[in-house]
Amino acid sequence: MTKRVGVLLAGSGYLDGSEIQEATLALYFLDKAGATVVNMAPNKAQADLVDHQTATPAEGSRNVLTESARIARGDVRDVAHVDADELDALVIPGGFGAAKNLCTFASDGPDCTVDPGVERLIRAMHAANKPIGALCIAPALVAKLLGAEHQVTVTIGNDDGTAEALRAMGAQHENRDVEDIVIDETNRVVSTPCYMLGQGPAAVGAGIEKLIAQLMTWTD
Q1: Cβ distance 211 to 190 under 8 Å?
Q2: Residue 198: predicted pLDDT
Q3: Residues 188, 125: contact at Cβ < 8 Å?
Q4: DSSP class of 196
Q5: Pairwise CA distance, residues 7 & 180, whole Å
Q6: What is the 3-state secondary structure (H, E, C) of 89-156?
């Protein structure tokens, strides 16, 4: 039976939304694995707006769901209306949007808050023993929700400051290279560093391919 995998987006563009290459590679490997993808994002204003050519703040405002539709080719749902029983697994690409729009980790660190719809879905997925894949900085979101109570084990690569922030939220952290993954069998969470280590799409894709393969194994 075809597996339904949610992809939780956070806008479009790594400085204020989802990292597009990570999201696209995740979608590619999910499609290659035969999964049916359910794209979703919060329906709210972005935390900020960044000019991706100059990496400087830009004027105006954008909606996270509307911007995520750019990656999803229009096929995207409000995460507040997606239930865990619709999904077999969940994937969360990185990019600063994961730490700005899905939660406030970028500004608040371990004291961050999580978007209510995102929190509800992730907690429900975990409670149902359904697997979660977290890319790049997205493990910070998982650490916030599953760290203190469940001691989830993740990786964001080898950045000491970020790793320490994850530990402050109760998570366990393991250093990994860009092409590697960390598997938490107990919590059914798998993570990979992606652009936390600043490599190109080939190396990032190698890690994502392993992550998706592990995620799909758990859905069998």
Answers
A1: yes
A2: 84
A3: no
A4: G
A5: 20
A6: EEEECCCHHHHHCCECHHHHHHHCCECHHHHHHHHHHHHCCCCEEEECCCHHHHHHHHHHHHCCEECC
Q: For the chain, how many structural domains are there in total?
A: 1
Of 95, 99, 89, 44, residue with least CA distance to 71: 95
Q: Is 112 a catalytic site residue?
A: no
* Other C-beta atoms lying within 10 Å of the C-beta of residue 60: 6
- Per-position DSSP letters for 43-102, written without gaps between them: -SB-S--EETTTTEE-SS--BHHHHHHHHHTT--EEGGG--GGG-SEEEE--SHHHHHTS
pLDDT of residue 1: 85
109 lies in which domain range?
4-219
Mean pLDDT of the chain: 98
* CATH at residue 152: 3.40.50.880
What pLDDT is stored for residue 74 in this prediction?
98
Length of the chain: 220
Token pair for 99: 């730490």
Cβ atoms of 145 and 119 within 8 Å: the answer is yes
Task: Record the pTM.
Answer: 0.98
Given phi > 0 = left and psi -120 to 50 = alpha, else beta, which region is 34? left
Considering the candidates 103, 112, 136, 194, report the single residue annotated as catalytic: 136
Q: What are phi and psi of 77, to 5 degrees?
A: -115, 155
